[in-house]
Design a protein that fits this description.
- It is a single chain.
- The strands form two sheets. Strands 1, 2, 5 and 8 form a four-stranded mixed sheet that branches. The protein has a four-stranded antiparallel sheet with strand order 4-3-6-7, with no helix packed on it.
- The chain has four helices and eight strands; from the N terminus they run αβαβββββααββ.
- It is an alpha+beta fold and about 190 residues long.
- It has a domain of about 100 residues: Immunoglobulin-like.
């Protein structure tokens, strides 16, 4: 009986291991020019150039949209070089940033910026809802050999860091800019 149970456990764990597929990827970030003495076009292009985003925390949900009722199926971090390797069953998934992982983040922004503040316009509710629903990346996990790529299940994610005064999604900064900030687009 004991050997039958052991065999059953081995079969179950084998089935789980077989149903998982490796997904590898990189997480990069670029920055915006936020002011100061004008560094020249070459320096600005260098600021915008993607570079590894180490230890970035991300979440995976099933489907093409960040639906709050859909649970997180995997939480992971990129390594010190911005790389990651995870395993998932076949299917369609989306990668969600830490700032969008749950409804409380959405509700906090909505509550804090429902009305305009001294520095920000009121948040656009439709824009915010769409911003939260939009994942950082949608991808499909396939069996090796089902894609025309050399490496199936390889994904790359790029984040763009915003300036300190431009952190609230779907709201416009109307406060004073730091003296070193670049001019507003509408000035």
């Amino acid at each position: 009986m004991r050997s039958l149970q052991s065999l059953l456990l081995v079969l179950i764990f084998s089935a789980v291991a077989i149903s998982q597929n490796k997904v590898i990827g990189t997480v990069n970030k670029s920055s915006a020019y936020c002011g100061g003495a004008y560094p020249g076009e070459e320096a600005i292009e260098n600021i915008k150039k993607p570079r590894p985003f180490p230890l970035k925390r991300l979440y995976i949900k099933q489907g093409r949209e960040n639906d709050f009722s859909n649970p997180v199926v995997l939480e992971f971090r990129s390594d010190s070089a911005g790389n990651f390797s995870i395993s998932l069953p076949l299917g369609e998934y989306c990668i969600i940033d830490d700032s969008k992982k749950n409804k409380s983040s959405y509700e906090n922004i909505l509550k804090r910026y429902a009305k305009g503040t001294e520095n920000n316009t009121a948040v656009d509710r439709n824009c915010l809802r769409n911003w939260f629903r939009t994942p950082e990346l949608v991808f499909t996990v396939v069996k090796a050999g089902q894609q025309n790529e050399v490496t199936p299940n390889k994904v790359n994610i790029l984040f763009t860091e915003k300036c300190g005064w431009d952190q609230v999604p779907c709201s416009t900064w109307i406060g004073s800019l730091p003296p070193s900030a670049p001019p507003r687009h509408n000035e």
